[in-house]
Write a structure and sequence with these properties.
This protein has 305 residues and is an alpha/beta fold. It has 2 domains: 10-229, P-loop containing nucleotide triphosphate hydrolases (Rossmann fold, 3-Layer(aba) Sandwich), CATH 3.40.50.300; 232-304, Alpha-Beta Plaits (2-Layer Sandwich). It has 10 helices and 14 strands. It has a 6-stranded mixed beta sheet, sandwiched between helices. The chain has a 4-stranded antiparallel beta sheet with strand order 2-1-4-5, with helices on one face. Helix 3 packs across helix 4. The mean pLDDT is 91. Bound molecules: adenosine-5'-triphosphate. This is ABC-2 type transport system ATP-binding protein. Pfam families: ABC_tran, DrrA1-3_C. GO terms for molecular function: ATP binding; ATP hydrolysis activity. Residues 10-241 form the ABC transporter domain.
């Protein structure tokens, strides 16, 4: 039995995975280190082929690292640890011809969850994800989004000690996204680290306390959304009473967008910002002059493009 207890971080250290050899070798994961802290939702983002799935597979032991380590609570992750983890792989593996409830009970038993307690938990999760009336249906009769919900329940049942979820939100409608987010928060509240990949940046920004951005196998950003926002280019929003077109000719000011009395600008330094504000005040009332935090999408474009 694992000695790990709730409150352990998941961590990867100097993780490398090379596919192929010689000239055709691909360094899919290239010296990746980051931590998914206990009790936090960590979003794992990056473009197609950035190395997210390969990293998660190495955490779950279904892909061998070329080098580097995967750790839980500071110790190398063991097979016993992994049996206590909830994993949603990229390749969804449900049996089409088996009823939903039977299948989930079976998957639970593979993870050592007694059938009776698995049933209670599964029925509760089906209810919460709006699938209570589908428990006896064959999986193949469900829409893809509903099959996805079943897959999610398979990963979440049995009070896992860590959750590793590859694209858990893809294909879900907004109500299911909210239901799923609530479920994940219940797990972080128990002290579980949750690592999930996603291409939906708005969702990651809304949900995550931490995020890790990969680009071509390397970590290019790692921190809270606020920490990442502080790294991005800060802009200012200037709202005047008259037309703001004149800001375009101010030295040290780049007008990103001007629309009537509203201008979004980047200033080269504090001095240029002060000169801009002074000029604006000389021309009349200034209704607003405020820094604009870059959105995650903008930060992502800066670091991952
Ligand atoms: N089994 C494999 N054999 C050879 N190359 C592979 C294998 N698995 C992944 N790769 C390559 O490794 C790189 C990273 O792929 P990976 O699936 O980890 O990225 P990803 O970030 O999950 O991408 P996506 O968002 O598209 O799912 C890609 O170039 C991919 O082609």
């Amino acid at each position: 039995m694992s000695t790990a207890h709730l409150g352990d971080d998941l961590e990867v250290r100097s993780l490398v995975r090379v596919f192929g050899a010689g000239d055709g070798a691909v360094r899919a994961v290239d010296d990746v280190s980051f931590r998914a802290p206990a009790g936090r939702l960590t979003g794992f983002v990056g473009g197609n082929g950035a190395g997210k799935t390969s990293t998660m597979r190495m955490v779950m032991g279904v892909l061998a690292p070329t080098s580097g380590e995967t750790l839980f609570g500071g110790r190398p992750i063991t097979a016993a640890d992994r049996r206590t983890f909830g994993y949603m792989p990229e390749e969804r593996g449900l049996y089409p011809k088996q009823p939903v409830l039977d299948q989930l009970v079976y998957l639970g038993r593979l993870r050592g969850i007694p059938a009776a307690s698995a049933r209670t938990e599964i029925l509760d999760h089906l209810e919460r994800l709006g699938l209570a009336d589908r428990a006896k249906d064959h999986v193949e009769k469900l829409s893809l989004g509903n099959q996805q919900r079943v897959q999610i329940i398979a990963a979440l049942m049995g009070s896992p000690r860590a959750l590793v979820l590859d694209e858990p939100f893809s294909g879900l409608d907004p109500a299911a996204v909210d239901g799923m987010a609530d479920l994940l928060r219940e797990h972080t509240a128990r002290g579980v680290p949750v690592l999930f990949s996603s291409h939906q940046l708005d969702l990651v920004e809304r949900l995550c306390e931490r995020l890790v951005i990969l680009r071509r196998g390397e970590v290019v950003a790692d921190g809270s959304p606020a920490q990442l926002a502080a790294r991005g280019t800060v802009r200012h929003r200037l709202v005047l009473t008259g037309d703001a077109g004149w800001v375009r000719s101010m030295p040290g000011v780049r007008a990103v967008d001007v629309d009537g009395p509203v201008a979004l600008v980047e200033v080269s330094d504090d001095g240029a910002g002060r000169r801009l504000l002074t000029s604006a005040l000389e021309r009349g009332d200034v209704r607003e002059f405020s820094p604009v935090r870059p959105s995650l999408t903008e930060i992502y474009r800066e670091v991952a493009a």
